[in-house]
């Protein structure tokens, strides 16, 4: 594995590359062109510029999170062709710069969904949290307003105000899209992009739906082992792989996280490792990465990644807001740095205990 850190780019992120460079064992950056709307072509000069900026800081780009998918592709409307063509050209441009891992998601309308961005934990840290009750009581059009006040002034990934201003319209466009249709549209998209992925050896890593069930009646398909196996088989190419995100699949306690990882040998191209604390089945909050702070056995998750020979980028995922940091919720420096150090510690221990017998 390679330890990496998500960074939104200068002007968008409160965290600096030179700070990331000082996290022990961290060599890779996961980034994006944050201001380019889904569906638009990425300019080669911008790709080159961000690559050079990262390299000047003594790091390198290990992958993109995300090249977002335009809603027309997910809906399967006739104008999808132009957006798929743009996507293919963007992949080609990334491939030409030697960037060969791309994370994306296929969630309708909303990306990840949380009902609170700053729930206070007993230690005084604040974290993102979810209660089904709050979602059930909410009009989806108000979803954005309900979290807007807690973003610390940052634009949250997947929650771009311009796009979400059209929520009602988007819901209308998705009205005939059920799980089957969404699978079909995903298959169509993947079949169209696989040739360029093969040409440049680009590993596509679909991010799970978070939470791993339908919200507001929208279809959600990347939620469990059965569905990801279906997705792998429907376009059976090693470039069609997954981002294994413990915090997203783990929202459903029926998902056996280490078991899922083991079933995906060779197809996990990116790993997001974080912990959740369940207060009940319908109420969870994000915890520190350490197993004992939450509900997951982080050792077993990292061990499963080690056992399948995972050699792709791994990153600590959402961190708590601690030590008075003001940053994008989930994406401050401090707690994610602690997470990286912890995952590195687990990995070293697993590696040494396996190789030394
Ligand atoms: C949230 C992230 C997601 C993820 C996208 C991938 O913090 O894990 O926004 O980046 O779903 O496209």
Features:
single chain, binds D-mannose, TIM Barrel, 357 residues, 14 helices, four-stranded antiparallel β-sheet, alpha/beta, 39% helix
- Please state the overall shape, judged from the principal axes of the Cα atoms: globular
Number of domains: 1
CATH fold title: TIM Barrel
* CATH arch. level architecture: Alpha-Beta Barrel
**H and E string:** EHEHEHHEEEHHHHHEHEHHEEEHEH
Estimated structural class: alpha/beta
Instruction: Please write the CATH class name.
Output: Alpha Beta
What kind of oligomer do you see? single chain
Residue windows where pLDDT falls under 50 for at least 5 positions: none
What is the tally of helical segments?
14
The rounded Rg comes to: 19 Å
Mean pLDDT: 96
Note down, in words, how this protein is organized.
The protein is α/β, with parallel strands linked by helices and 357 residues long. It has helices at 17-21, 44-56, 71-75, 80-96, 132-136, 140-148, 161-164, 167-173, 179-200, 225-234, 246-249, 257-263, 298-307, 334-355, and strands at residues 2-6, 28-31, 60-65, 101-105, 116-120, 126-131, 203-207, 240-245, 268-273, 276-280, 283-286, 313-316. The strands form two sheets. An eight-stranded parallel beta barrel has the order 1-2-3-4-7-8-9-12, surrounded by four helices. It has a four-stranded antiparallel beta sheet with strand order 5-6-11-10. α1 (17-21) links the parallel β1 and β2. It is globular and about 55 Å long. Bound molecules: D-mannose. Residues 65-66, 103-105, 111-112, 157-158, 207, 318, 330 line the site of D-mannose. D-mannose (DNO) binds at residues 65-66, 103-105, 111-112, 157-158, 207, 318, 330.
